[in-house]
Design brief:
alpha/beta; Rossmann fold; 2 domains; 6-stranded parallel sheet; globular; disordered N terminus
Amino acid sequence: MESKVEIKSECSDELPEAMKNNMTIGALHNEYQRKGGEDLVFSNEVNLLRSLGHSIKELVVTNKTISGIVGKLRVAFNVSDSVSSREKVAQFLARSDVDLVHIHNLFPILTPSVYDACVEAEIPVVQTLHNYRTICPGSLLMRDGKVCEKCVTGSPYQSVLHGCYRDSQIGTLAVARMVNYHRKSNTWNTKVNRFIALTEFAKAKFVEAGFDPKKIAVKPNFIPDPISPGTDLNKRNRTALFVGRISQEKGIRTLTRAWKQMSLELVIAGDGPLLDSLSSTNRSGSIRLLGPQSNAQISDLMLNARFLVMPSEWYEGFPMVLAEAFAHGLPVLASRLGGMREIIENGATGLHFEAGNAHDLSEKAQWLLDHSNECRRMGENARNKYLAKYTPRKNYDMLMRIYEEAANDQQQNALP
């Protein structure tokens, strides 16, 4: 749900003067061919910083430029260390005069070689860990539809046998080589001043993989407030809502199994590899497939649904749809797994169910349907949690403190 960030409040007086409106930030990002949550987070943060007076210098590359066998082989060969990317970033830094570099996605074009350009220029580096690519070649900590953590502490090369990256052993070999090379070189602990993990759960996984815990700050994603003053958040109908990618890791098969015996209507909004098969096998009148929806349409769906269902079967980072649901006062029924277990407080802002358990999912969904007052209370709690933790202003204050920590770390490392 993409929208422009606008903040009218002044910066916190507690922030150091250097971290206020005169800071110039280099924003680096490798866009995916099909834009997703990471691209939206990048856009939101850049818009937020600009709205508060910061000068932002962007260096954005896109995977759409990768074409043909030769192009793919070139990217695979350079994914661990790209001389051209390092030089490109060095030139960018030389002409941009930035105070700090904030990296979002590096894979696969920018590559970790960009750190070397920043180190050489003595510029502090912050990187957001949107997924688990630095410790898992497949990026999801998932294999064959189940959670897999073998590469967290074990050799990433074991992923090659299973083709964890796009079901390709050759592609997986290239990514595993990157993970292994930089793990052994201690790149993550020596060339990045601060990492941003989206949840405490994610931070724990990176620490388990060898990241220095002192270098990892936890900061969630955010969205601009979609609710206008005076909007009634209690006019809810008898529908459950799923918004997201129609794919295996999102728990779609478990969701549809759970709904076979449900009288409650389930509205599914989104696109993905399982959409066509879902359309052809959907015999239940209680499931309504909408396909891709606009931002305004998603907002309307969230304002009218009884609750959101999030049956993911992998360790989600911080899905934007959760922040959106909370902002709309919508409680969430989610898998008791990874960061979702942390973000959604069971019985307060939603309910948990056992990941992959269709029966448990249907029972919890029925409970929410039967207990409208409790469901409404959870929705109110969700809205309050959004206001307390996931607004642009809250996020800005957290981000500035992380930037300050990174700058201080850079200065200490530069001391003789």
